[in-house]
Amino acid sequence: xxxxxxxxxxxxxxxxxxxxxxxxxxxxxxxxxxxxxxxxxxxxxxxxxxxxxxxxxxxxxxxxxxxxxxxxxxxxxxxxxxxxxxxxxxxxxxxxxxxxxxxxxxxxxxxxxxxxxxxxxxx
Length: 123
Description:
Blueprint (H helix, E strand, L loop, with lengths): L11 H15 L7 E2 L2 H8 L3 H13 L3 E3 L5 E3 L5 H19 L4 H15 L5
Antiparallel strand pairs: 1-3, 2-3
Helix pairs in contact: 1-3, 2-3
Pfam families: GntR (PF00392)
Protein name: DNA-binding transcriptional regulator YhcF (GntR family)
GO molecular function, one term: DNA binding
C-alpha cells in the first residue's frame, strides 16, 4: 500500500509515482490490473487530484501504465507481443481464480502441472 508522507522533502506526486513503480516491479500490481481513478486514489491518499493525475501522466509517458479512455487506467503490458499475450492470459486466469474463490497456491500448482504435461515448462 502506498503512503504519502506530507513531511517528506520528496513531492507527493513523486512519492506516488515511485510507489506505483515499486508495486509493479514487485508484482503487487500485475500487468493488465486496473488502477483506481484519479479522484478515488486522491481521496484514498489524502492528496489533490492533480497530484495523482501528474503521477499517472509520468507513468504513462514511461510506458508503465496505460489509459484506455473511459475504461480506465491499467498497468501496461510488456512491449514484446508474445509476452503481452501471455500477460493478458495470466491476467484473465487470475481474474477467474479470484472469481471462483480458488486458492492461489493450488491454482499455480495446476498451471505448473499443465506446463509440465505439455512439455513447455523450463524449470
